[in-house]
Here is the input.
Amino acid sequence: MAKKRVTMNKVREIIRLHEEMGLSYRKIARALRISHPIVSQDIAEVKAAGLGYADIKTLSDTKLLELLEKRRNETERYRKLLRAVSVFGPGAEKDRGEPPPFVGRVPERVPRRLQLLPILLSPASLAECG
Here is the structure.
């Protein structure tokens, strides 16, 4: 069952209390009767979107939700891709044999996982992940 999202008014209040009042995440959580991880998550989402209280104060609820959900959906897309590719799964630190062939020379100091990115992020790989 999906978790219920905090209302946009509460998101605005979280940001206001954090930016203007300088309250800690736990004090904000107590004041608004929500968990402190939710406070942390909402503040991080708003900061990652490059917004502050002055910006979100005038935004409509639908526009604010759209901005926050867009960022969350982009992040989830990349998480899906990384889960789908076994190289990034458990034991990814272990050497898995010879690196794939490349057109150009890859410096030796580049970790193997990063050497595989051009192959993993090919259009065919991205299409498999949806």
